[in-house]
Design a protein that fits this description.
This protein has about 140 residues and is α+β, with helices and mostly antiparallel strands. It contains two helices and nine strands; from the N terminus they run ααβββββββββ. This is Heat-shock protein Hsp20.
Length: about 140
């Protein structure tokens, strides 16, 4: 019998027993999400660092903030087609991530910069209850 068919049957049985969303809890372990992100919080600010190596065209990165959600869309491209892969740990491809923020943020006070493969996003806590989804412009930081 085909081992992949056995795995598919096993997964179907697990879905039936635990529910269709059972595998969602393991998605990050089986296939890590991209891009990786670190978020740091103070009383009135959030500072996000997003790992996006090889980004040459900032227009191919979309960053949206809507109330308490940060949305990232784009692609991580590694253009290397020479030889046979021996080890491949750098994750790449098209991505779309929505991250729930710990508090609502202001749409009018957002700063995003890109340097050495990292996007830095600075967000400020929202005091009022208005909400608008805005695309964030990313600036390139020059080396000194």
């Amino acid at each position: 019998m085909d081992p992949f068919q056995q795995m598919a049957d096993w997964k179907k049985n697990m879905d039936h027993f635990f529910g269709d969303s059972f595998w969602n809890e393991f998605e990050g372990l089986i296939k890590p999400t991209i891009p990786q992100i670190n978020i740091y919080q103070t009383d009135h600010e959030l500072f996000c660092i997003v790992n996006i190596p090889g980004l040459h065209d900032l227009d191919k990165l979309d960053i949206y903030v809507d109330y308490a959600t940060l949305e990232l869309r784009g692609s991580i491209d590694i253009d290397h087609s020479h030889g046979t892969v021996v080890k491949e740990e750098i994750l790449y491809g098209v991505f779309e991530r929505k991250i729930t923020l710990p508090f609502p943020v202001r749409a009018d006070k957002i700063k995003a910069t890109y340097k050495h493969g990292l996007v830095y996003i600075q967000l400020h806590r929202l005091i009022s209850e208005t909400s608008r989804k805005n695309r964030i412009h990313v600036h390139v930081l020059e080396d000194n």
